[in-house]
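PROTOCOL LOG
Step 1. Enter all chains and additional molecules of the complex.
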Amino acid sequence: MHVHRFEKLWIGLSLLLIAGFIGIVLFGFTVMDLKVPGIEEGRQVDPTTVLSDKEFSKPGVRKISDDHYEVYMIAQQFIFRPGSTQPLTIPANTKITFHMTAPDVMHGFEVPGSGLNATIIPGQIATFSTRFPEAKTYGIICHQYCGAAHHNMQGEINVVPPSEFDESNLISQ
Amino acid sequence: MSTPESAAPGEASVPEAPSEGSKEISLDEFEPYGTLAVTGSYFVLLLVLYALLYFVEFATHAPHIIE
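Step 2. Run joint prediction.
Step 3. Record the structure below.
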């Protein structure tokens, strides 16, 4: 079959592009060690009872060690708890592990301007760890349509210097 | 009276004889540099936007997922 040289050129470039996409993703997950949000494997919750279930009955910030805190968060129509009525206050430069679930419908958790983004599905616990390098205020928005007031579902993360972090608001284990 | 050609709509009409000033060229003599330029600029745009999306939005230095 005779193929025109221009056709050969853009067939070749298209194949290179596909190889490039695959290569960049492999580079990201090996050399740059990127991570994506996950779910807690092997742990399912009942959405109808999760509001009175273990840690989720008292959502908030818990301390694991001086350099590691965890956040149990409920996303429900149309608030994040904590986050919406009270900002979520956490220390900067500290490892923060989020555990999030929903009692009603699917919600989204996105911190605009950052790489933090997860989908919160009833029955599962979405989880990831991060560090906020600087003390500043971040927003949270729901990015999955969850009902009539979805557009109002938002929250705030207040990152404070570790020395100013008030531990009296922590949820005791 | 309709001719046999016009009686069958959609059928290719008989090619006209080359008019004066036109010439037939082979496939390899056909060089669509305009098409190449448009395709090439879309290709470059695609690469730039992919890099922006991946390295700026996803692999960002702002807070990101570490585990």
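Step 4. Note key features.
The interface with chain A takes residues 27-28, 30-32, 35-36, 39, 43, 46-47, 50, 54, 57-60, 62-67 of chain B (CB under 8 Å).
Helices of chain B lie at 4-7, 33-58.
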